[in-house]
Amino acid sequence: MTDSTNEDSFRGQAPAANEDSVGGQAPVKRPALNWSLRLAEERVGDVLVLILAGRIAAADAEMLERRLDATLAAGHRRLVIDLAAVDYVSGRGVKMLDAVHVRLVEPQGRLVLCAVADPVRIVLELAGSAARLAIESTRAAAVARASAESDPPWRGRPPDA
Phi and psi of 158, rounded to 5°? Predict the structure, then answer.
């Protein structure tokens, strides 16, 4: 059940697929890379779902952080970030996700990530953030968790456990 949807792009569209000729052979098609970060918004009850696509590079993380600051300033306290179409997150992006999580804990808010692609999951695990952030495999599960009143804001165990 979606109440509203909004979409914008931080940096244009992703480049088209490229072709390379190798050793005089027929061109080899390479898949297009998602260099730009695109964002769409959905409201599901009292949960704001941000659907990201592309790469969260350092510059994108700063722009996304400003967007999340505005979201928090508007009073949204239950956020889901869908990362299914994100194939890269920089260290700055990881720090930004951690910072938003910490900012939401005090006012009894909740940040839940969902559908995290393997490359992004690996970065979150290496940074130690996967243990602190709530992560669900589907958007529906993430929305349910963000809506829950009794679930603690950390990922199933207290931060000191």
Answer: -60, 150
CATH class of this structure's domain 4-9+35-147:
alpha beta
Question: What is the C-alpha to C-alpha distance for residues 161 and 149, in angstroms, rounded to an integer?
Answer: 21
Alpha-carbon dihedral sign for residues 127, 76, 69, 119:
positive
Q: How many Cα neighbours within 13 Å face the side chain of 59?
A: 6
**β 4-9/38-44 pair status:** antiparallel
Confidence check: pLDDT of 30 > 90 = no
Which residue ranges make up each domain of the chain? 4-9+35-147
pTM to 2 decimal places: 0.74
Rounded mean pLDDT, 56-85 = 93
pLDDT of residue 17: 40
> What pLDDT, in 10s, does the model give residues 76-125?
999 999 999 999 999 999 999 999 999 988 778 999 999 999 999 999 99
Q: Among residues 91, 83, 92, 103, which one has the least CA distance to residue 153?
A: 103
Q: Which amino acid is at 19?
A: E
* Residues near 22 by beta carbon (within 8 Å), at least 6 away in sequence: 28
Q: What is the sign of the dihedral through the CA atoms of 76, 129, 63 and 116?
A: negative
